[in-house]
Design brief:
This protein has helices spanning 3-15, 75-91, 98-107, 112-115, 118-132, 147-160, 181-193, 218-221, 237-246, 250-256; strands spanning 22-28, 32-40, 48-55, 65-69, 134-141, 164-169, 173-180, 195-198, 204-206, 211-217, 229-233. By secondary structure, it is α+β, with helices and mostly antiparallel strands. A hairpin with a 7-residue loop joins strand 2 and strand 3. Residues 110-116 have low confidence and may be disordered. Residues 7-112 form the RWD domain. Its main location: cytoplasm.
Amino acid sequence: MSEAAFEEVSVLSSIYCGGGEFQLVQQSAQGGLVVQINSTVGGERGPDVRLLFHLHPRYPSCPPAISVSSTGLSRSQCHTIRQKLLDQAAALPPEPMVHQLVEWLQCVEVTENCRGNKDEAEEEVREREKEEEEWTAVLSLDHIRSQNRYTSLLQRWTQQLQLAGRLLLGRSILVILQGARPNIKEFCRLLRTVKVDVDSSGKKCKERMMKVLTESPTSSSGGHGLQGFVVMNYKSLPQLTAAFQEINMTGLYQQIRPSLSD
């Protein structure tokens, strides 16, 4: 790493000394330096942006890699700003340039592409919130022959995908999941594509017969607060009903009851 790069980082930390303005994210001989600067586009009243500059070991002989993110701009608008910064960096002489790039961004004329379409940005925020919203789903499994293997896989997936769940073993085999909807969908994909069990001849098989009986936001399903992954056995419908009552999901149980075996 060049001495000029280290000197530039030291200067940047002095210039952007406000709370949260500057951070040295990474430093290594092989990977170089990564610095984060929180700034705005087009002056103080412009939208806030987070800039990541990756200074390669050969920097400033080669321009930095740049990443742009913002809660007030859409992804396409952040991409436009990033491309403008990369074009500006490519046009500068091979010398320390991060401060110049940030200053250029702060002073550049704010066009609609940079300031952003408010409706588009708000729509992306709503989509992110929807993805992060907690959902509850109930799955029906066809069979479990290799219980230890099957159960350990389900438990591992719930941990990896940050899901809480219940496995209810009885005449009907049910899996209750709570967590982010994309993670529940990934859990279902794994069930259908990974060999989780064995068939009647002892060969490993996938859970092709899995069905999603219901899925909805947790707030509307009535259930709340599942923790970990718990395996429960039941021998009768009253016991199954009691299991749903215990986790405050009686309404959910009424929705799936017509699909269950007596």
